[in-house]
Automatic annotation (TrEMBL):
Coiled-coil residue windows: 148-185
Catalytic activity: ATP + protein L-histidine = ADP + protein N-phospho-L-histidine
Protein name per the record: histidine kinase
EC number(s) recorded for this UniProt protein: 2.7.13.3
Organism superkingdom: Bacteria
Span of domain Histidine kinase: 231-448
GO cellular component: plasma membrane
Claim: Membrane is one of the keywords in the record: no
Source species: Actinoplanes awajinensis subsp. mycoplanecinus
UniProt entry tagged with the keyword Plastid: no
Length: 460
């Protein structure tokens, strides 16, 4: 594109030249690819600027070029030989500047220069050097028409503009009617939704009220159950303990000798009483945990000593040579926790594993995991189906078809162990596969929970 050479040039000296410049501007705008409305805008802006400059006196040279302002644009430069008055001229042409993209008025060394530009649309033809030469040749043959011809063109443009305005007015009226109809539909839908929302809100409020009532009833029932379990357990412990004591006296060597049948019956009574006492103790412990009466006593627990105690107290339960009972040396020397509750959880898990392991091993270990400590009780027992992993933590629930190798289960050991784990600030989970065995993991925080509880209390 050769921008050094203008597309067209013309001088403005008399009033008739205004029509000629207007016609030439429209032809140039059409040649470079401006749309019909933009052609009219450029021609109107040219005629108005020429009129103002002609009134100011002196001659004006009008030059048409295609320049690039990021995108190609038609630029018209009008060099007025009279100097000064650029600010007043810019004020007069302020409204004209709305017809084009840019309008500049400068005072040059020998006069005043007015520059205006209109960007070419994206669909305009590419203005190569060959195309520019063709446009110059065509514009050189342009013959200006008479003022009457220009007036006729203006009238045609005005009629076209009026038709366009009328079409836009009709479209606007149609859109307004559609918008009004839409608004009526929206308002009807809004009222319908508001009524439905209000009805839903009333239902939600009623549901919340019912839930609150049920929560109060459930809380009262839970408290009543805990009181019942605690009272019944407490009342049963004394007679059950007495039965066990009487049975021991009857089998004592200092008492009268019993027959074989009597010995078997007394042993059965003592065994049943021991099972009942275990159940009563489990119910009492569970009732205390549910009632929130178990408060942990935080201290520094020596895990090596605790593991040794567990190894000694539970060794008598591992009486079958097919089962290897292993308590690993702890890799964590100490832990800030409640020694009694922690030992109770581990004892429950180990006892449960020994009951349901016919062969293989039962192993206790501990390991640090980040900011926590994990106690792991792994066995090679019968295993638990995945769909029952959570149900085994329900009170009195036992896996269907599971047979205890030694002793009887009450279904309270695992629920009690999980509650104690929560009291200690941790959790208890299980991973198990039928026929392979089970792994129970007690995860406790290694940080001082007593200090954490104090810092979490609201300031008074």
């Amino acid at each position: 594109m050769n921008r050094s050479e203008p597309l067209a040039r013309m001088s403005l000296r008399v009033e008739q030249d205004i029509f000629a410049v207007r016609q030439l501007g429209r032809e140039v705008a059409r040649a470079v690819g401006l749309e019909s409305q933009d052609q009219t805008r450029v021609a109107t802006a040219l005629s108005e600027v020429c009129r103002v400059l002609l009134v100011a006196g002196a001659d004006t040279d009008v030059t048409f070029r295609v320049e690039s302002y990021g995108v190609p644009a038609l630029q018209v430069t009008m060099a007025h030989s009279a100097a000064g008055g650029s600010s007043r001229l810019a004020e007069q042409l302020q409204l004209v500047g709305r017809l084009v993209d840019t309008m500049e008025v400068d005072d040059g060394g020998i006069g005043t220069t007015v520059r205006m530009a209109r960007r070419l649309p994206s669909g305009a033809p590419v203005l190569t050097s060959t195309k520019m030469d063709e446009i110059r040749a065509a514009l050189a043959q342009h013959v200006p028409g008479t003022p009457l011809d220009e007036l006729a063109v203006q009238n045609q443009q005005l009629i076209a503009a009026l038709d366009e305005v009328r079409a836009q007015r009709d479209d606007l009226a149609r859109l307004n009617a559609e918008l009004e109809e839409t608004n009526r539909g929206v308002m009807a839908l809004y009222h319908q939704l508001s009524d439905e929302l209000e009805e839903t809100n009333r239902g939600v409020v009623a549901l919340y009220a019912e839930l609150d009532e049920k929560s109060v009833q459930l809380r009262a029932a839970s408290e009543a159950k805990s009181r019942f379990l605690a009272n019944v357990s407490h009342e049963l412990r004394a007679p059950v303990t007495a039965i066990i004591g009487l049975g021991r006296l009857m089998t004592d060597s200092s008492s009268d000798e019993l027959t074989v049948d009597q010995q078997r019956q007394v042993d059965l009574i003592r065994s049943s009483a021991s099972d009942l006492l275990s159940l009563v103790n489990g119910l009492l412990d569970l009732a205390k945990a549910e009632a929130g009466r178990l408060e942990p006593t935080w201290s520094e627990v020596d895990l090596k000593a605790m593991f040794g105690q567990l190894r000694g107290t539970l060794r008598p339960l591992a009486t079958r040579p097919e089962v290897e009972f292993v308590v690993d040396e702890p890799t964590v020397p100490t832990l800030r926790s409640d020694e009694v509750l922690l030992a109770q959880v581990l004892r429950n898990l180990l006892t449960n594993a020994l009951k349901f392991t016919e062969s293989g091993s039962v192993r206790l270990s501990v390991r640090p995991i980040g900011a926590d400590v994990e106690f792991v009780v792994a066995d090679t027992g019968t295993g638990i189906p995945s769909e029952l992993h959570e149900r085994i933590f329900e009170e009195f629930y036992q896996v269907p078809g599971s047979m205890s190798v030694s002793g009887r289960g009450t279904g309270l050991g695992l629920p009690y162990a999980r509650r104690l784990a929560g009291i200690l600030g941790g959790g208890l989970r299980v991973a198990s596969t039928p026929g392979t065995g089970s792994t129970f993991t007690l995860q406790l925080p290694a940080a001082d929970q007593s200090a954490a509880d104090k810092t979490s209390e609201p300031a008074s």
